[in-house]
Structure formats: structure tokens, C-alpha cells
């Protein structure tokens, strides 16, 4: 199995889950180790003889083709991406390159390695290219809208989500045109260990630890649907094994919360752990809103439940407490 972006947040959790749950699986991680990825994220599995690690860029067509030739992958799980919306607003170029061009390079490599010259798929039933994407491709919801379904029209509104949407369309085109065994997954906001400092939950916890203002964009009413990262990893595993090619699967946490409510809950958890600094809520600070800030995401995972037997199982209160306990001592 090739796992791109395996040194990042979700990728590193996924690699550990896969090595634990599939005793004969060989995993090769390809990761550029940008500011967002690091080998330490794979520390727990680094010595595992079934893991190999290649530092490199998914946009490097020769490197990717060589890896396909050497390892004879039958599964690709494609996580590698520039993932932070704020960065895509201040500097979109890297997002176009990695998220769109990089996905193209991987799809081409899989097409060349897996499909014969006459375009017929060789052993397609045993192969899967899982393209990991986001609910942000569907745009934003109002309070009254029903949650995103797989049939919801794409309406990306940030440079980040536009590049993810572009890559989703490309992956889908490779299925329809060449018969590449593609499965697309779109999930909501993940939370849990090893997420980069720049994201919302680590930012709130770090600000509490350092007694600095907690930046809340706009009025804090924006809603996200929080999914425990390991629950997501199990969903991707199932999509790779049981997913129908040419189909997409939504994963959501069944857990819509306004940002301000999440920040307050973290403050209360910090009050218990660091009572000398209580109340942490005094640090909450409303700051200038993100440009084009999507107001609400919510994801229906009915298809994943019906076809993959997947549903999120982690209770948000427990997951949030575990998240605080993982980050707080590190800051
Ligand atoms: P992340 O930023 O934590 O990790 C991305 C990883 O990709 C890093 O290890 C980085 O070094 C690597 N990378 C970046 N550019 C690369 C390149 N050109 N070549 C090789 N490696 C490269 O991201 P994440 O939060 O773990 O997200 C993983 C995937 O899941 C992304 O595709 C993202 O769009 C998607 N996703 C994330 C979330 C979320 O809440 N985090 C939600 C939905 C979808
Ligand atoms: O300091 C902050 N203050 C704040 O109010 C930060 C960093 C964020 N926010 C808000 C913006 C969002 O409404 O919190 C919410 C979550 O922000 P992020 O952690 O940046 O996540 P989001 O923009 O929702 O995108 C995430 O989920 C979908 C991932 O980063 C994406 O890669 C994924 O596709």
C-alpha cells in the first residue's frame, strides 16, 4: 500500500491503524516533509519492518513511477495535500501544485502501472486508488440546509477547497475514462493527536497553556462537524476494501458544534487541569474573520453506513478531553 502524506496528521494516524489491524500489510509512505509533516508523527511505528518511508514530492513523476515499479502497490491512499485554508488564502500557488498537479501525477502513475496498453484494467478488482478529500468541496450550508450528501453539487469557495474539488473531478475522470479503480472519500473536520499547531483545536489549547489570546474568527458562530481522526481512518480502510469503484463516500462525525462552543469546552477542560490559570475563558478573543469563511458544514454518512458498515463511534466529550490531554503537556 502506498500512503502519500503519511507523515501528516491523518496519514500518520492511518498508518498506525493499518499496521495494527492488518498483520501482513506492507506500507510505503511517500511524504515531502513540508512544514506540516514530520517523521516524529510516525515514531510509534518507525521500527516496524512492514513500514518503509520515502521522503519525496508527489509532483515528482519519475520518483512516483519508480516507486510503483519497485513496490508493485495494489492500493494507493492519497492524503498528501496542502491542508490549511488560511494558507490557501495568503498563498494559493502551493495548493494548485500539490493538491491538483500532485494528484494528477499519482493518477497517471497508477494508470501506467495498473492498466494495460489497450486500456483494459489488469486485476482491477484487487486494486484501489483512494483519493482522500474534504466536505469543503460542497461549499457552505445555512442553518436550514440538510447535511451534504454525495449528490450535493460541488461549490468550493476557498482556494484550498477549489484545488481539492479539482482533484476529485480528475480522479473521477480517471475512473470514467480509463477505468482506474478510484474511490473518493469526503470527510468533515478531523480532531485528535498529531494535528498541526496551525489548526483550530491545537491553537485553542496552546493559547490556553501560554495564557495568550484565543483567536476566534468573526463571531464564533461558524459550525463544523467534528470527527475523531481514528474513526475517519477506519472509514478509509473500509472504503479501500469494500468501496465501489467510481463512487464517493462521505464521512461525518454527527457532531455539529459552533466554534465558540468548542473553544469554551476546551477552556473548561483546561480549568480542571490547570486551575491556577482558570478561568481560561477570559482569553477568548474575537478577531477579524477569515475571508470567505464557510459558515456551516454538516455531513450525512448514510451511504458509508449502508455500504461500508461505517459510522463514527467516538463520543465528542471524551474525544475532546483526550485531545486536550495529548496536546496540553506538549505546549
Ligand atoms: P496535514 O497538513 O496534516 O498533512 C499533509 C501531509 O502531506 C504532510 O505530512 C506533508 O508533509 C505532506 N505533503 C504536502 N505536500 C506534499 C507533496 N507535494 N508531496 C508529498 N507529501 C506532501 O493534512 P491532514 O490534515 O492530515 O489532511 C490529510 C488529507 O485529508 C488532505 O488531503 C486533506 O485535504 C484531507 N482532509 C483533511 C481534513 C482535516 O480535518 N484535517 C478533513 C477532510 C479532508
Ligand atoms: O485560530 C483560529 N480561529 C478560528 O476561529 C483557527 C485556526 C480557526 N478558526 C475557525 C475557522 C473554522 O471555522 O475554526 C474552524 C476550524 O478551522 P481550521 O482548523 O482551520 O479547519 P477548517 O478551515 O474547518 O478546515 C479543516 O477541515 C476540513 C481542515 O484544515 C481541512 O484540511 C479539511 O478539509
Short summary:
With 331 residues, this protein is of the alpha/beta class.
Explain what the structure shows.
The protein has 331 residues and is of the alpha/beta class. The chain contains ten helices and 13 strands. A seven-stranded parallel sheet has the order 3-2-1-4-5-6-11, with helices on both faces. Helix 5 (159-178) links the parallel strand 5 and strand 6. It is globular and about 65 Å long. The model has no long low-confidence stretch (mean pLDDT 97). Bound molecules: nicotinamide-adenine-dinucleotide (NAD) and thymidine-5'-diphospho-beta-D-xylose. Thymidine-5'-diphospho-beta-D-xylose (TDX) binds next to helix 6 and strand 8.
Number of helices: 10
The percentage helix is 25-40%
Structural class: alpha/beta
Tell me the span between the first and last alpha carbons: 34 Å
Task: State which percent range the strand residues make up.
Answer: 15-25%
User: What is the H/E string?
Assistant: EHEEHEHHEHEEHEEEHEEHEHH
Q: Under the CATH scheme, which architecture would be assigned?
A: 3-Layer(aba) Sandwich
Query: What is the highest CATH level, the class?
Result: Alpha Beta
Radius of gyration, whole Å: 20 Å
Tell me the count of domains. Answer: 1
Explain the layout of strands and helices.
Blueprint: E1 2-4, H1 9-21, E2 27-31, E3 51-55, H2 61-71, E4 75-78, H3 85-90, H4 93-114, E5 128-134, H5 159-178, E6 182-187, E7 190-191, H6 200-209, E8 214-217, E9 223-225, E10 227-228, H7 229-242, E11 247-251, E12 256-258, H8 259-273, E13 284-287, H9 302-308, H10 316-327
Parallel strand pairs: 1-2, 1-4, 2-3, 4-5, 5-6, 6-11, 7-10, 8-13
Antiparallel strand pairs: 9-12
Helix pairs in contact: 1-7, 2-4, 4-5, 6-8
Bound molecules: nicotinamide-adenine-dinucleotide and thymidine-5'-diphospho-beta-D-xylose.
Keywords: Lyase, NAD
Domain NAD(P)-binding: 2-323
Enzyme class: lyase
Amino acid at each position: 500500500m502506498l500512503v502519500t502524506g503519511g507523515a501528516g496528521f491523518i496519514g500518520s494516524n492511518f498508518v498506525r491503524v493499518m499496521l495494527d489491524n492488518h498483520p501482513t500489510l506492507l506500507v510505503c509512505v511517500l511524504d515531502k516533509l513540508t512544514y506540516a509533516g514530520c517523521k516524529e508523527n510516525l515514531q510509534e511505528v518507525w521500527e516496524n519492518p512492514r513500514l518503509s518511508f520515502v521522503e519525496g514530492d508527489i509532483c515528482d513523476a519519475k520518483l512516483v513511477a519508480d516507486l510503483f515499479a519497485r513496490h508493485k502497490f495494489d492500493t494507493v491512499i492519497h492524503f498528501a495535500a496542502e491542508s490549511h485554508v488560511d494558507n490557501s488564502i495568503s498563498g494559493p500557488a502551493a495548493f494548485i501544485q500539490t493538491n491538483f498537479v500532485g494528484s494528477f501525477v499519482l493518477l497517471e502513475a497508477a494508470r501506467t502501472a495498473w492498466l494495460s496498453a489497450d486500456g483494459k484494467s489488469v486485476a482491477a478488482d484487487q486494486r484501489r486508488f483512494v483519493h482522500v478529500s474534504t466536505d469543503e468541496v460542497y461549499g457552505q450550508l445555512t442553518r436550514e440546509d440538510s447535511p451534504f450528501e454525495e449528490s450535493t453539487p460541488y461549490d468550493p469557495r476557498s482556494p484550498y477547497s477549489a484545488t481539492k474539488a479539482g482533484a476529485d473531478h480528475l480522479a473521477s475522470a480517471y475512473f470514467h475514462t480509463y477505468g482506474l479503480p478510484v474511490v473518493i472519500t469526503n470527510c468533515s473536520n478531523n480532531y485528535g493527536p498529531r494535528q498541526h499547531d496551525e489548526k483550530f483545536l491545537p491553537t485553542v489549547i496552546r493559547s490556553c497553556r501560554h495564557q495568550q489570546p484565543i483567536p476566534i474568527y468573526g463571531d464564533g458562530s461558524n459550525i463544523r462537524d467534528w470527527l475523531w481522526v481514528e474513526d475517519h481512518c477506519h472509514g478509509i480502510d473500509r472504503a479501500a476494501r469494500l468501496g465501489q469503484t467510481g463512487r464517493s463516500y462521505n464521512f461525518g462525525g454527527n457532531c455539529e458544534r459552533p466554534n465558540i462552543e468548542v473553544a469554551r469546552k476546551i477552556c473548561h477542560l483546561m480549568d480542571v487541569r490547570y486551575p491556577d490559570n482558570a478561568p481560561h475563558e477570559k482569553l477568548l478573543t474575537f478577531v477579524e474573520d477569515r475571508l470567505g469563511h464557510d459558515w456551516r458544514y454538516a455531513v450525512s454518512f448514510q451511504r458509508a453506513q449502508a455500504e461500508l458498515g461505517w459510522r463514527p463511534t467516538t463520543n465528542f466529550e471524551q474525544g475532546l478531553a483526550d485531545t486536550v490531554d495529548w496536546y496540553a503537556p506538549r505546549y
